[in-house]
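Slide 14.
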Amino acid sequence: MWIHTLLLNAFIIILCIFCYQIFWLDKDGNKVRNKVLISFLSSISTVLCITFPFSFHLGYIYDLRLIPIILAFLYGGLRSFTFVTFVYLSYRFYLGGNGFFPSFIIMVILFVSIIVIFYFVVPAELEKRRKFFGTLLILISTSSFSVFAIITEIKIDGTPGYVRMQFLCSYIVINILTGLLSIYLIEGMIEKYKMKEKIQRAEKFYVISELAASFAHEIRNPLTTISGFIQLVHKNEISETHKDEYLQVILQELEKAQLIIDDYLSLGKPQNNVKDSLDIRLIVNQVINNISPLASLHNIEIKSSINDSLSINANADKIKQCLINIIKNGIEAMANGGMLRINVKKGKNSIVIEIIDSGIGMSPEEVKRIAMPFYSLKEEGTGLGTMIAYGIIKELNGDIEIKSEKGKGTCFSIIIPSL
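Slide 15: predicted structure.
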């Protein structure tokens, strides 16, 4: 019977440990909230363990209450331990019986043991050897409790019974094993959380380093050209007839460098979060009017099919920028001219804008890299235009899907939540 009760106590403790992972380790990991949560969950598990105890004789109840109290010290510090101890002693006093005084004495012994650990052990060493100190504290507290139980039995019966001694030994072992299991689970959860943080930092560093390297590579090309022509002009190694031509090349390269810098800055500057209810038909028609001269230069005809009464909640300038960036890519992909289709239709709780070109198309590998910074299939492209378009749509909780076939064309499907 007592085995079932102690297993129930162990289940309560482990359940609270998993709640700790759900409500803290899988969230933001705030340290203050961490200690408050440890104190709260340790108090709950302590009270529940005392509520479902095992009793050998009147007034003395046995359970795994000491484990959450010790866990509160190991992971929440002295304040958490003090709070949980207060909750424990208050509830134990409320229950009454002969066991309150021994419980109080045991907590005093446990508190003195913790003070000694604090005095002789630095915090960093305590964190590294939680299993050892947890086992030591459980052994001290359960052994002290067992001594009180034996002394009481000697007073009543004159000698401790074999069954009682067997139970107390099993009680100490079960406390130690459950404590070690609890510490092992918590340590595993903390290690997993730290590993997740390391991976996130590594990913951020990788993205930043890749973006910086790509930017440096792209900006170096026009600067190298500018540097070479300026040196020629400075040394007077070119004729006056070619000087204007070279100066024009320098200006073009400066404009290219300025374009790269502008695209780069647009990734980092704060987004305009002012959103309005927009008629998508009006927005698309305005974009078509703006992009038509460029399409005519490339001998491309733009055809559109737009359903009526389609509205979204977005920033008009951002949506136009997104559409222009993608449409320009489609136009520039059709070197020999052709037709570019823009279809706007109603989806499930969304609006789908399809931009379909009959250009060079992309391979599956190229599609995977399409939103990476400075990756472009165009000789003079920076790749930031598509990346900016992706960022605008993600900000609206939308998505962009790409279907493409090499030599046949590409379809960009822009999916935006509708009103």
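Speaker note: The mean pLDDT is 80.
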